Each structure stands twice: as C-alpha cells, then as structure tokens.
Amino acid sequence: MANSNLGLFFVFALLGIVELEASHHVYKHLQTFQSSSSSANQPYRTGYHFQPPKNWINDPNGVMIYKGLYHFFYQYNPKGAVWGNIVWAHSTSEDLVNWTPHEPAIYPSQPSDINGCWSGSATILSSGKPAMLYTGIDSQNRQVQNLAIPKNLSNPYLTEWVKSAKNPLMQPTAQNHINASSFRDPTTAWLGPNKEWRVIIGSKVNRQGLAILYKSKNFVNWYQSKTPLHSADNTGMWECPDFFPVLLHGQNGVDTSLNGPNVKHVLKVSFDDTKHDCYTIGSYDNVEDIYTPDEGSVEGDSGLRYDYGKYYASKTFFDNVQNRRILTSWINESSSAADDIKKGWSGVHAIPRKIWLDEFGKQLVQWPVVEIEKLRANHVSLANKLLEGGSVIEVPGVTATQADVEVSFEVKDFEKAEVLEPSWTNPQLLCTRMGASVIGSLGPFGLLVLASEGLKERTAVFFRIFKGHTKYVVLMCSDQSRSSLNQDNDMTTYGAFLDVDIRHHKLSLRSLIDHSIVESFGGGGKVCITSRVYPTLAINEAAHLYAFNNGNQSIKILELNAWSMKTAKIN
Q1: CA distance 51 to 346
Q2: Where is the signal peptide (predicted)?
Q3: CATH number, domain containing residue 472
C-alpha cells in the first residue's frame, strides 16, 4: 500500500524518543459502511450483535477502554465477504452495545506488514497511553510483530495510528528457530516485578503448542526469553493466546499485571486444528516466568472451553472503570461460502461477557454484560408452570427472532434419571445421539427457539439429567439438527456437561436470540453454547418461542422471563 512518508517523529513518554512513520493513506474508498438491505431480504442479519453492514470480519484485535470510550478493533476485509485483504477496522462505544464506526486504524503500509495486518492486542502503558502490538505479514510472507500507537492522545476516539519505524520488533531468525509461518497474535502485555514488559506470541514446533515469551524495558526493544511461558504436546498451533489473572474470590476483574496470593492465572489458546478456544487455570511464577496449570487440568481440546459452540479467537480486556474483565469473540458462519457471498457479509461478534472464577476455583463463569439489558422491552413472564412429559407451550408476546429469555427449572424424582454409561464421556456426541426428539426420563427439557409453526424448523437448547456413579450429571445441549430446511448449512449439535449440584440448586438457562445467533448460558454461565442457524420458515414474524419437555417425567418452570430486544445502533 502507498505510504505518504511524511516522516513524522513523536515523543512517546514511556517509550522514550521513538521514530514513528505515519501512514495517512486511508481506506475511504474501501470503507463501505452503507445501509444494509431490509430485514425481509436479510433475515439473518443481527439486531444487537456487533457486525458491520457488509463484508467479512473475524478476530477481535485490540479491545480497551480509553478516556471513557470502549474501543473495538477487529479483522475486516473491506473488499468482500470472504477472508482476505485484512485491515484493522475500528469502532467505539460508550456502553458496549451501541457502536460508532471509524476509518480503519491499521492497514498494510510498511515492509513488515505489507502482506497483511493480522491479530494483536492493546496494552495500556504505565502512563495511561495505549499501544498496539500486532502480527504483520512481511514482504517475505513471514509472520512478524509490529507496534502502532495513536497519533493524537488528546482525541478520545483515537482515529489515527502511527507505526514504529523500528518494525518489526520481533521476528523469526535462524538463531531463534521460530517457525516463520507459525508466529502470531501477541497478547496484551504485562509488567513483571523487575518492571520489564512481557508478552506471549502463539507458535508451534511440530505438534507442540507454544506460548513464546518476549520481554522489554521500553516496549520497543524486545528479547526472547530462554523458555516459553508454557507449552503442551500434541496440541498443534496456538492462535490468539490470552493470559490474565483472576481473583480467587468475587466477580471483580483485575489489571493484567497483578500477581499474588489472592489470584490465579488463566491461559487461553485458540487451537488452530479444531477451532476451539480452550483454557486452563493455574499459577504464574513471575520470577522464573513459568505458568503451571493446576493439578488435574486437561490441556488440549477435551479441556475447559469458553464456549462449546461457535466461538473462536477470543480476547479479554480489563475494564478499569467498572472493575471487570470482559471477554469478546468472533462467531463465524455456519452457512456456505456461496451463501455468504450472496448475502454480502460473513461473521459477527459475540455479546461481550463479564468473566470471573467460580466459587470452587475450578472454572470460569461468563455472563452477558449488564448493559445489554437496556435493550429489553415487552416483558413476558411465567411462574410455577408444570411442563408435563411431551408438552410444548408457547411463550407469547415477544419478538421471537430478537429476544432475551431467562428460565429456571425445578427437577424432582431424581431416582428416575437414566443411567449414564461409563463410556458416555463425550458430551457433544451424546447430545448428537440423544437430541431433542429422543424421549428420555428427566429431559430433554428447555427452549425451542427460532421455531416455525408446526416445528418443522427449531433450534432446541435443553438439559438432560443422568444418574452417574457417584452423583447426578447434567448434560446441556444445543441441537441444530432441525434448525433449517436448507441442508447446505452446518447443523452440528453441540453439548457440554454442566457442573452443578442439581439436588440443591435450581437449573437455569438464558438464551440471547438474534435472528441467526443463539447464545445460551447454563447454570448461571458455567456452560456457554453459541449456535449459528439459518431457518427458512422461522424468520421475521413467522418465528416462535416455546418451552418444552420431551421427557417422561414432569418438570416445573419456577420462573420464565422473556423480553423482546430493541435494535442496537451499530453502524
């Protein structure tokens, strides 16, 4: 891309005097934020999930809060609805719900990123100034790491960014033996006890996944640590790593540099082989710079996941105004590439989630940010409603294509639960074999969303309860097998085991429904499953919402609350 080569120099306080190269060649001719087609012609466009009016998007990049504004940078193709021509698009928000688009912040302009500006992260430096580390694809098609900072720090919208003339700051060499095609996605950096910055970058050696660690005193001159922060055999390429502390108690978030006796650390990696975001919880020795997962942790695709459906390349940031850690993620399509091109867009982002450590320190809990509730309207409620075996009841009065539903169930007669066979260890396979149409004892029961009249199309989000060897086991499923009459879509069924003591706690489910997305939260956010569905009948006013029970035993709805969701202002 052309470079204006104005030779600007900036004094960037914490970094010292750093020569920066400003690129003012903007993408106005590619920034096609125009009104989209009507909802009748675009029944799958979302009403309150983040997406630009057209074209391809994928990973969230730098996400941060600066001068009271949330900044969202993301991978965007300004030229079409398939991956390619990637730039860093940029939007801002006061509430994480309504977003204002700006011109692309980072785009190819230097030898170190001339073939692409890929994922990266934002770091708020000690002075309060933001800095972006990102992966560039250089003129040799190597993956290298670059730095960009805002041109005008007094402008809260941060609409112009300049790149370091010293880019690339980190790169593969013959000496460091880093794979030039597997070296990407720098994290938010953190400060160690010696006041050096640390950052990790995803990589691999053969089938061993790596979090390569770099250090710097000034955020410009980086050197590679002798050992990675962590690695794991037989996990393949680690994309989009994320590393952050969580408090042992309570729901507040903490700064990324915090360490001590009252925190655990989370290492999340996006497995390139399976496109799943998995994490472990453990301890970080910030002197030796080694992360150790807790005993019993499962590393790999069968371990803990943020979301057991469509959810990839996620990233967190610390919201120091609300004292919370926020999780963002890309939700890719389940439709064919041909359909994506036809509709003119591909990809959306999940509703931002607050995350914290559960009371037992075993897993993370996730819940949609409270700001999304400002879109609620037309409240409908049910209470103490018995769902007899084989029953389906409609939830009337809400816009079924754009809704927020919370329901809690009371379960009795546990002794009648089906026995969980010892070989039934794969919850997704179990959900596939025992979908919503398969009659059980205690379940399946839950919600039928984006359902057509007569139920030719429906997406079922439900629970089944089994009798395990030592306790009752709750299975949560999202069954897309009948979500659409269009067989060109991926209609994979998803599932996970929910860690909840069903004998002493009610069983809760929340689903955010938005035309072609269903984000579901079981057990107060202990299990999350996101689905992409494209019904042909259950669209617009023809969609319905039901509660159902296809088990032999009756289940009681203790309370059900549903709201139509107003449309957010995103473009």
Answers
A1: 9
A2: 1-22
A3: 2.60.120.560
